Amino acid sequence: MLTLALDATPVASAWAEDELVVADQKGQQKALMQASGVDKDVPYHIRWVEFEAAAPLLQALGAGAVDTGIAGDGPFIFAWGAGLSIRAAWLIPPRGGGKATAVVAPEGSSITSAAQLSGKRIATGRGSIGHLLLLRLLATGAIPVPAPEIVFLLPAQAKAALDTQRVDAWSTWEPYVSLAVVSGHGHVVADAADLMPNNSFFVASTDALANKRAHLADFYRRMTAAYGWGARHQAEYAHILARQTGIPDDVAVSVAEKLIATPAPVTSDTIRSEASVVATYRSAGFVTRSDAFDEAFEQNLTSP
Prior knowledge:
The chain is α/β, with parallel strands linked by helices. The chain has 12 helices and 11 strands.
């Protein structure tokens, strides 16, 4: 367990709104925070809210139902492009070297390369990081014509469709990649390494950035320390992840192995690296928002 060195507690007014509502996907961030011990002595209450995927999480952020949550760059930019009042507030660099996002085929499938996805039915979430991967595979020519039929499904529906072979492949992310490969005995056809930035972000609502900056800065600093702990204690993280989420132990180990990252503040370099993502969505007709792209990011969030 990590002992987090904290600065002096800010004045009481900084915690006037004493609850931070944090959206999580499949319990991964909550498990990491609790396993590392950085949730001790938090001067405000953290209320965790669970989501199956980034799209509903980001919609909740845009509606002000939650204050912050984790999402891949693809779904974040997709949601920002749809007009949601959200900003990427803290960077999580590529986890697993880009292999945390992948197209997987079911057990027994003869599909072994991206080229063989041509004309196939592929499940993914609309605007998800898996959707972005498919768009990049198409844009680079890795998937040739005829283009595959993309079937937009939430993860639970996509997994069921893959298991029953109603789709030929599933473009998804962790922990679903490991669930499909380790538990489902499927195999990776293509991953996102070298195809896109592969960043994730802690995204915040503009309301939370205005009214809970101290909370957000403290929470992100704690999560940064938790990621450092997780990289050094993968087995311990995997154990609590399996216990809290109910995913099998071997799947949790696979997820933990792809955890390694060093979260950091958003910088101008971060924004430049994401230009290719917004360009991909614009060329596909999914983003038409005309606001300056740098307004999608919060660069001035410092520790409280």
